[in-house]
Structures are given as structure tokens and as C-alpha cells.
Amino acid sequence: MALPLEFESLTEAISGMGVDENALISTLGKSQKEHRKLFRKASKSFFVEDEERAFEKCHDHFVRHLKLEFSRFNNAVVMWAMHPWERDARLVKKALKKGEEAYNLIVEVSCTRSAEDLLGARKAYHSLFDQSMEEDIASHVHGPHRKLLVGLVSAYRYEGNKVKDDSAKSEAKILAEAVASSGEEVVEKDEVVRILTTRSKLHLQHLYKHFNEIKGSDLLEGVSQSSLLNEALLCLLKPALYFSKILDASLNKEADKTTKKWLTRVFVTRADHSDEMNEIKEEFNNLYGETLAQRIQEKIKGNYRDFLLTLLSKSD
Q1: What single DSSP character describes residue 47?
Q2: ∠ CA 269-270-276 to the nearest 5 degrees?
Q3: Nearest one of 230, 263, 237, 235 to 249, comparing CA atoms
């Protein structure tokens, strides 16, 4: 018996990010026992023949892959249904459990949310975990990043349109000296932490302009690209660029499991903010020469793809 032609598309349906549920239903759901046996024998990357016992068994990595890919849609729906405050509180808690490699997520939540939303996330943290976000971070984070992270999540930034330009210029000089100096970690310096954790985002934009004029170079290029300080500056100064880079990394076929999860996070946390999402879409298009919708259509499958595109369309 020959394998039906429609089975040839099954490998594509279960490869990559997401799964093509319709293809699985129409092909596997209607298949005969003999057809599934032929499929298992032909799909050596998914199944291995146990010749002694005369059956084809799943590779462990295939089972793990399918569980993960089927879960992407479910996880996105659950996160989308949550109150934004609870969602952010849980993201911070997860970052603390994972450790230093995930501290950038704490920076993202604290630096890209409005003052009210960050305060709300802190309230949700009380409700969910019976402690404050600040004390949990202070007790889990050790080393030079503690002071910065506690300060960032504690912030309640002014969001008006008034800026004292003289102060911004003065603080640009302070930051320029701190970045240029050696020895003590920049993120441990009290004045740097004070500026980054208390000043309004508009004030920091003015500071950024003055810094670049004073130094003759871009502040973001003068700080290590892999540092937490760079993450904070990028989130505060150019959030659309930050999120575009996150999305591009998550959609790379070589991305690891953790990086791929970033995709859901960005969509469910930003989709309700039309202005921000439109800026992200525009920045992504400028950086990579294709629209975010095109990339999603190309890289993602099934219900997960359709859900992401639906969220994306909210800002059209």
C-alpha cells in the first residue's frame, strides 16, 4: 500500500512553530490504520523502528516538540485572558525563579509599562504571592543588579509633557562620566540609578539627546549590548526598537525554546496598546524589510498563527 499524497504535508504541519490543526484533522483524523503505519515508517525523524518488537515508536524529542507546539496557542489564550496586572506580576515572578538570565524580563515590565500599570502589577504581586515585588527582588537578586532592579520596579514616573532641559543636560554629563569611568559597575552608582529609576521617559529622551551631543556618540552603542543597563536604556528610550529585536529573535528558526516564548509575551502584552503596537510594526518593517504580519504568516502555523494575527489586527 502506498502512502496517500496528503500525508506528505503532515511533516510540514507539525514542524516549526505552532501546528496546522486543520491539516492534522483532515489527514490524520480520517486516516486508516495502515496509512498511519506507513507514515510512521516514512517519518524517521519522528519515529524509530523497534525491529525486535516489530513496531514504530516516537522519538522522545518528537513527543516533547508536539506538546510544546500544541501548547503555544493555549498559553497565548490564557495570558491574553488574564488581567494585565496579574500577567506582569507572574512574568516578574517567573523571571526571579529562572535567575539572572531572565532579569531582562523584569527590566521590560518595569520600563515599558505606564506608571499606573506598573503600580497595578505591584498590587497584583501582593495578591498573588503575599509579598511585595520589591522585597522579592531584593531577596533573590544579588550583586550589582539588585539596586537597579529594585529601583526600576519601585518607580512611579511622571508622565506629563514638562521637562527641565537644564537638569536633563546636567544629568547627561553625569551619565557620560559614569559610562566612561572604570572600576565600579555603572549600575551600582547611586546617581545613575537615581536618574534611570525616577526621571520621566520624556526627560530621559532629552538626556539622551544631550548625551549624544556631549560624547559625539550614541549612548546605546556606548553601553555593552548584552548588559542589563543597555536593556533598561533601550526599553526606556526606544521601546519599539527593543520589541522589534525581541520579535525578530523569537521568529528565528535557530531560536531556542526560551527565546521562542518571547513571541507570545510581546503580542499579548502590547496588543491592547494600539499606538505602541503600530510603532513596533513600523520599526519592524524598517529594520527587516517585511511586515510583522508577513513574518508571522510565513513562520507560524495553525490556531497560534491565526490568534497572533488577530491580536496584531487590533491596532490596524
Answers
A1: E
A2: 155
A3: 263
Longest Cα separation, the chain: 81
Three-class secondary structure of residue 55 per DSSP: strand
* Of 261, 264, 263, 163, nearest in space to 205 by CA: 163
Neighbouring CB atoms inside 10 A of 161's CB total 7
The pLDDT tens digits of the residues spanning 21-72 come to: 998 888 888 778 888 888 888 888 888 888 888 888 988 988 898 899 999 9
Which neighbouring-strand residues pair with 58? Answer: 47
Compute the distance between CA of residue 312 and CA of residue 264 in angstroms, rounded to an integer: 12
- Phi/psi for 282 (5° steps) reads -65, -45
Is it the case that residue 99 has pLDDT exceeding 80?
yes
CB 174 within 8 A of CB 199: no
The vertex-19 CA angle with 15 and 20, nearest 5°, equals 110
Confirm whether pTM is higher than 0.90. Answer: yes
Answer whether 305's CB lies under 8 Å from 296's CB. Answer: yes
Closest CA to 94 of 150, 135, 136, 155: 136
Q: Can you tell me the distance from the alpha carbon of 27 to that of 90, in angstroms, rounded to the nearest whole number?
A: 38
The span from the CA of 309 to the CA of 303, in Å, is 10
How far, in Å, CA of 220 to CA of 212, rounded?
Answer: 9
Q: Are strands 55-58 and 47-50 parallel, antiparallel or unpaired?
A: antiparallel
Cα torsion 109, 115, 116, 119: sign: positive
3-state class (DSSP) for residue 165? helix
The DSSP element (H or E) to which 48 belongs, if any, is strand 47-50
Instruction: Locate 268 and state its grid cell.
Output: 499579548
